[in-house]
Description:
The structure is a single chain. The protein is an alpha+beta fold. The protein folds into two domains: about 1-60, no CATH class; about 60-130, Arylsulfatase, C-terminal domain (2-Layer Sandwich). It is about 20% helix and about 20% strand. The chain has helices at about 25-35, 50, 110-130, and strands at about 60-65, 70-75, 80-85, 90-95. A four-stranded antiparallel sheet has the order 1-2-3-4, covered by helices on one side. Strand 2 and strand 3 form a beta hairpin.
Amino acid sequence: MKVPLVIAGPDIPSGQRRNGLTYMQDIVPTLLDLAGISPAKPMDYQNLSPLFYGSRDSVYTSVYGAYMDLQRMVRTGDYELIYYPAFERFLLFNLKMDPQEQNDLIDSQEEGPTINPLKATMRSMQQQLGDPLILPP
Length: 137
């Protein structure tokens, strides 16, 4: 989840750093754009070039991840919500305060208002992507 993406090239400004959320699949439309090639058909993922040139700080407000029937994840801002279906267990992390994901906040009174919006985002993104896994309330 925290793999850096480094892009360098003759027309790409150096020394810029963005912390925007991305998907690995964003590399294809980005490289096509940098090569001056228009895709033959619309693509599902985003061109990251606006991040390089400073016209945007992010292309997504949230990202969603699924691994088989074992795990689901949504990340929005500083928070990451993870669901493990086999254990019927949610985990919540504040990645700004805890980048190593050592302190699960799911039962924290202070983070209570954060959990339901993240669950709603997870459900919404599941529907958008056609993920059939049923999440508990």
